[in-house]
From TrEMBL:
Alphabetized UniProt keyword annotations: Signal
Protein name according to UniProt: DUF3299 domain-containing protein
Pfam family, one: DUF3299
Signal peptide boundaries: 1-21
Amino acid sequence: MKKIVHLLTALMLLVSFMSYAQKNEPIQIGWQDLRGKVAPYDDPFIAFTDEQFYNFSVYSQIKEMQELEPTRVTEEMRAVAKDAKQKLVQENIDIEHFLQQRTIIMHKRKQSENKANELLADKNIKMSGYMLALEFDNGLVTEFLLVPTVGACSHKPVPPANQLVLVKAAQAVKAGNAYMPITVTGTLRITHQSQDLYLVDGSKNIEMAYTLEATNVAPYGR
């Protein structure tokens, strides 16, 4: 009887340990998972033809420049804007309406780019990306950006805030080559913040939606 009790006790402990281990097992995620859910919205510009979109873009950009920096607008630019406007009017496009919609859509796109995934807040996660070191100390780094593509923030445009992760490594890591592919495991925090990034081609102010803390850094795929 005692042997049965001991076996049952051991089994219960094993089940309890397995349950605990599963709870603490990191969630494997991809970059798409970092995008937060936003309310769907209609984009009226989808119905534009390529030519209409081009003419509207040219007209709206020159119009905005005239309002903000009129001295930069040349006669040639005014002529181009006038021609683009005439073509849009001929196709019965309500320019003022779409100018208002452009502002609304730009705001909604910005919201979408900044929105973090609340479901991942404070979760133990595992994901892969590329290391962009912020500061070096004898070739070692403890803090860096995890970016989705090679060249992001440097030779390519800065990704949206919800596609940048500020990583704080548990131990100093050898930086290796620029944009070294890595796999990171740690606690994901939602921490909207901005930071100046100094690179060879100049400085940039970047916005980040996430911080990964107590992070283990390993070569890609491990």
